[in-house]
Write a structure and sequence with these properties.
alpha/beta; about 375 residues; binds flavin mononucleotide; eight-stranded parallel barrel; 11 helices; globular; 13 strands
Length: about 375
């Protein structure tokens, strides 16, 4: 039977060659938000990974919305030009469609790079003021954010739309909003971080109001020829936090706002969260979200070709995203194709690789 993983899929007006997605992964290697030669090598390689879609890391819509000093941004002409150079190169040499994740880190901003400790920036490390729905820190010793006021709402909404316009100009095939992992949009949705008493807090509808406003502002500036999606939370994995029921509600809201797809991730709302470590830990939640009729991707400890194939062929999700497994093996897609007997495109320079090494294997390309 032909592989479902390696069959094409449509996201709005965009067709992907297969259902493997390289998940967005921060590289902490930007300079004032601008991509560098590290991104050139990293994304250039992934554009030839045989994934149908490569999603560029969380790229922040304002300078103070970055997680770390090394995070990517799309808030200046310099950021836009630096990223365009890389996207143009990926297009010339690679086969994957290219997406970008637009984000605002909220109360998890002003942090150290993981290899510098990953905690909040300390005095002397140029920390900055963070914003959030309520003045509640992410965890002990983290910065206490300022509860957002009317001008913050307007500025952040506008910043998302402006960054989306830059992404359109750069020529991305897909734009996805980061509404998970405890960053700004997620922190509005979760009752653990949103204790507002105005129209942006309280019921699930009210907590969804600001993420929905952002989604609508972005939808207005992104043409239908570009796929528009969001990464959302399947579970906070904490008592009193978001659950699969909330993920279904969020997906329905985004579908009504004209979004083409969602990606089910989870965790990250507080330093107390313990995300599960079981293979495919978000898959069952994705299945519930997919029942709403929106194209659904999932992520989280998807590691083997057979596991990925089973998720899509059993109808639990339409696509899978991989992060750590792809860092470990950037040619994961090539090897999955060999295992599943599928055909993939390789760059001309590498055409002589696998067939000579694996003469008897079920593979093509
Ligand atoms: C180095 C690294 C950077 C990451 N950066 C992002 C990011 O920019 N945006 C995001 O939504 N998730 C990010 N994640 C989370 C991954 O996209 C993914 O959801 C998570 O690692 C679980 O998938 P996995 O088990 O395949 O690694 C990152 C993960 C890693 C390992």
């Amino acid at each position: 039977m032909p592989s479902v993983l390696f069959s094409p899929i449509k996201l709005g007006g965009v067709e992907l060659e297969n259902r493997i997605v390289v998940a967005p992964m921060c590289q902490y290697s930007a300079v004032d938000g601008c991509a560098t030669d590290w991104h050139f090598a990293h994304l250039g390689m992934l554009a030839n990974s045989a994934a149908g879609l490569v999603v560029v890391e969380a790229t922040h819509v304002e300078r103070h919305g970055r997680i770390t000093h090394g995070c990517m941004g799309l808030y200046s002409d310099e950021c836009e030009a630096a990223l365009k150079r890389i996207v143009d190169f990926c297009r010339r040499t690679g086969h994957a469609k290219l997406g970008i994740q637009l984000a605002h880190a909220g109360r998890k901003a002003s942090a150290q790079r993981p290899w510098e400790g990953g905690g909040p920036l300390k005095p002397g490390q140029e920390p900055w003021e963070t914003i959030a729905p309520s003045g509640l820190p992410f965890g002990p010793d983290w910065h206490t954010p300022r509860a957002m006021a009317a001008d913050d709402f307007a500025r952040v909404r506008t910043a998302f739309a402006a960054a989306a316009q830059r992404a359109v100009r750069i020529g991305f095939d897909a734009i996805e909003l980061h509404m998970a992992h405890g960053y700004l949009a997620h922190s509005f949705m979760s009752p653990l971080s949103n204790q507002r008493t105005d129209q942006y807090g309280g019921s699930a509808e009210s907590r969804m109001r600001f993420p929905r406003e952002i989604a609508e502002a972005v939808r207005q500036v992104v043409p239908r020829t570009i796929a528009l999606g969001a990464r959302i939370t399947g579970s906070d994995w904490l008592d009193g936090g978001l659950t699969a029921v909330d993920a279904v509600f969020c997906a329905k809201t985004l579908k009504a706002a004209g979004f083409d797809y969602v990606d089910i991730s989870s965790g990250g709302i507080s330093s107390a969260t313990r995300t599960p470590t079981a293979p495919g830990y978000n898959v069952d939640i994705a299945e519930q979200v997919r029942a709403t009729g929106i194209v659904t991707r999932t992520v989280g400890l998807i590691v083997t070709a057979q596991q990925a194939e089973a998720i899509v062929s059993d109808g639990k999700a339409d696509m899978v995203a991989l992060a750590r497994a792809i860092l470990d093996d950037p040619h994961w897609g090539w090897h999955a194709a060999r295992t599943l007997g599928a055909d993939i495109k390789r760059p001309n320079q590498y055409l002589r690789s696998a067939p000579a090494l694996w003469p008897g294997a079920a593979m093509a390309g």
